[in-house]
Amino acid sequence: MPRSLAMPTASREHLPWLIALAGFALMFGPVYWNAATGIWQTDDNAHGPIIALVLLYLFWSVWRDIVGAEERPLPSLGWPLFGLGLLMYVFGRAFNISSVEFAAQLPVVAAALLLIKGPAALRAAWFPVFYLVFMIPLPGSLVDAVTGPLKQWISDIVEAILWHAGYPISRSGVVLQIGQYQLLVADACSGLHSMFSLSALGTLFMYLMARRSRLHNVIMLAAILPVAFIANIVRVIVLVLVTYHLGDEAGQGFLHDTAGIVLMIVALCILFLVDALLRLVLRERPARA
Q: 285 catalytic, yes or no?
């Protein structure tokens, strides 16, 4: 008997996803390449590749739920979302605005899920789609607007803490004078990018832990930015004390470069402590094995 040329059922089911993945690669491949050879090589956006790997894991972890979701495509919402994403993409590419280019992924991915499967698939992938937010580099206008006040607050708090601890410290704007040393609280010390990175880690931690209590999740979410701010104050205090006791070379050398790692460790430890205390107070049991 002649061999059938019909495409196997499994292949037909996966064909729309393969087309969508190919289209995504064609659209956003250049965006990722530009980031890998550009902004991801800076300290402020070095977390980009890590977030990308986390996203791959998140989508892979819900892939079966997406494929097994009820097939009820919703083109009335999917196509407008795709059109919005396409407009954002073209605008970002035309004016070389990386934040808009990366932001275009959200409506494009959501549209693909709605067009191929429907709302059930989007619900199954809600967290990975939401997590695409952390791929978006912070816009320069936002950084400029927020960095100045943050530096002022940090400088003021650090001066007050060390003054009450008995150190000979004074402040002029964002310049701290301790002993014979002057230290400028630079933009990197404002903690804005560390807040963004910790928000990514904190929300991922909350998702993986899957606490049942809504109050627990609300408190954890609300604690992320204050914890990042406190951790950054600890970082600046440590650098000031290292400079005062060990000299300028120590404060601006290896210890200065590793201070960012210390900041994230301190912040994560505080978040873990808050989570443990909330579990104890709210008497929760783990939601997942």
A: no
